[in-house]
Amino acid sequence: MEYTFISRNILDRIMEEYITNLPRTKQEKTLINNKLLNKIKPILLNPKNTSLYDKNLYSCAKKKFELEEIIPKDYRVIVKALKNSVLITKKFYKVLYHIHDKVTQHGGQKQT
Asked: Which domain of life, per UniProt (predicted)?
């Protein structure tokens, strides 16, 4: 679904440009995608196993994120500083639309 206030392609380009302009060391961890989220979760589930990924990722994951158990044995990753669940890049567009809709109350349609 495309919304009138911004296209998915434009949002993707904005995010890509933002990441590209960051220092190389910060690019991977700035916006969380499924791939990175799937690395963070096992680190938090088993923090003593340090053999899966590099030490920088372990340090970042432990410092910035925590797990919240939704139901037994099912967890979601929470940003420690905000106490909010992680919003992966794949869902940005949909969330942006819902925020826009809530603020403007015109559902993404052109106002007349």
From this structure: Eukaryota
